[in-house]
Design brief:
48% of the residues lie in helices and 9% in strands. It contains 16 helices and ten strands. β8 and β9 (261-264) form a beta hairpin. The protein is globular.
C-alpha cells in the first residue's frame, strides 16, 4: 500500500499542473530506483521484498502474464463488472476477496489460511434481530449472481467449493463488507509532514507554508477531497473492536503503508473496552435513527453505545441530508452508493 508516485508526481496529477516542481524534493520518501515489476504481467511493486512477498502469498495465482490488458480475461472481466457497480476506490474490495482465494490456493498449508479467515465475522443476516445485509437482499440478487459467476470463472477451486456456492459467496462478500478496513496512503502528505518538521529561517518557512497552502487550494479545485491512494485490508485484531458512536480509539495509517495503528482518543481505564467507530465523522453527526439505519444495514446490529442510549427518547426521524440523498434516486444510483459501503 505504499505510493508508487513521488510526491511531485502525486501533486502534479492531483493539481492538474504538469509543470509543478516541489521544493525540498529530498523530503519525498518514495524511492523509484527500488521499484520492481513482475516480469510476467508488469505489475509494479515498491521493492524486491514486496514483489517477493506478493509472489509467495498470492500473485502466482493472480498474475495475468501477457493477458494483463486483455479485457476478456476472467479476472479483468470480474474487476470491470465490479467497477461498473459503484465508484472507486472500492474496486479494491473484490480483489481483496480474490487475494483471499489465491492465498489459500497457493498455500502449502491451506488449513492455516482457512482457520485465519474463519475468525472474521461473515454472517449475512442477524436472525435474532431480523436483519439482513442490505447488499444481500432481493434488490441486488442479479448483480450478486453476475459477480459470483465471474468470480467462479476466474478463481474456482474444488478445495474451496464452499466459497463459490450461492450461500458461500454471500458469506465471503459479507466477510469483506463487514470487516474490510479502508487504507489511505499519500506520498504528498508524507512530503508535507516532512517539510513541517524542517527547521527553517522565518522567511523560508513562510514561503514554504504559503506554497503548500496554495498547492492544496489548487488540488481542491482540480480534484476535490479525494487525495489518497485507497485500498482495503483485513486486520484480525482491529476487526474484533466493537463500535461506538463515541469511540475511544481510531484506526489510522501514519506510516503510509499497510501497517495499521490503533490510537487512543481518550484515556482508557484498565478493563474498559476499546471501541472504534464504524461510521465516518459525518455519519456520526447524523440523528440516532440515521446512525442505527446505517449500522443495521451494513453491520447487522443495533447500537447501544452511551450516545445512542442518551438519545433513545428522540423521535425516529432520518437526518435531513439522508432524506435528500434518497429522493429521486434510481435503483442503479442506489447500487453505486450502497456498494461503496463494502
Amino acid at each position: 500500500m505504499r505510493s508508487l508516485e513521488t510526491a511531485e508526481e502525486n501533486a502534479r496529477r492531483l493539481s492538474g499542473l504538469s509543470g509543478l516542481s516541489l521544493p525540498y524534493p529530498d523530503q519525498c520518501q518514495v524511492r523509484p530506483e527500488l521499484h520492481q515489476c513482475c516480469p510476467q504481467c508488469q505489475v509494479m511493486y515498491c521493492s524486491a521484498e514486496c514483489r517477493q512477498a506478493a509472489l509467495d502469498q498470492y500473485h502466482r495465482v493472480l498474475c495475468l502474464g501477457p493477458s494483463r490488458d486483455d479485457l476478456e480475461h476472467p479476472i479483468n472481466k470480474l474487476q470491470e463488472a465490479w467497477r461498473n457497480m459503484h465508484y472507486p476506490p472500492e474496486t479494491s474490495s473484490i480483489m481483496l476477496m480474490a487475494r483471499m482465494v489465491a492465498s489459500v490456493k497457493q498455500a502449502r498449508d491451506r488449513s492455516h489460511w482457512l482457520n485465519l479467515f474463519s475468525h472474521f465475522c461473515s454472517r449475512t443476516a442477524n436472525e435474532q434481530e431480523e436483519m439482513a445485509h442490505k447488499l444481500l437482499g432481493e434488490k441486488f440478487q442479479g448483480q450478486l449472481a453476475l459477480l459470483r459467476s465471474l468470480f467462479s470463472s476466474a478463481l474456482y477451486d474444488d478445495h474451496l467449493s464452499q466459497w463459490f456456492s450461492p450461500d458461500g459467496f454471500r458469506s465471503l462478500f459479507a466477510l469483506v463488507g463487514t470487516n474490510g478496513q479502508g487504507i489511505g496512503t499519500s506520498s504528498l502528505s508524507q512530503w508535507v509532514h516532512a517539510c513541517d518538521a524542517l527547521e527553517l529561517p522565518g522567511q523560508q518557512r513562510e514561503q514554504l507554508d504559503a506554497f503548500i497552502d496554495q498547492l492544496y487550494k489548487d488540488i481542491e479545485k482540480e480534484t476535490g477531497d479525494f487525495l489518497n491512494c485507497e485500498g482495503s485490508g483485513l486486520f484480525l485484531l482491529q476487526s474484533s473492536c466493537n463500535h461506538s458512536c463515541v469511540p475511544n480509539a481510531e484506526a489510522s495509517f501514519p506510516e503510509n503503508n499497510f501497517l495499521l495503528h490503533l490510537t487512543a482518543l481518550s484515556d482508557i481505564s484498565p478493563g474498559e473496552e476499546i471501541c472504534i467507530s464504524y461510521l465516518d465523522c459525518c455519519q456520526r453527526d447524523r440523528s440516532r435513527h440515521s446512525r442505527l439505519k446505517i449500522l443495521r444495514e451494513n453491520y447487522l446490529f443495533v447500537c447501544s453505545c452511551p450516545k445512542c442510549i442518551s438519545q433513545a427518547d428522540e423521535l425516529d426521524v432520518t437526518s435531513e441530508e439522508e432524506d435528500d440523498e434518497g429522493e429521486g434516486e434510481a435503483e442503479g444510483d442506489e447500487l453505486e452508493d450502497e456498494m461503496t459501503d463494502v
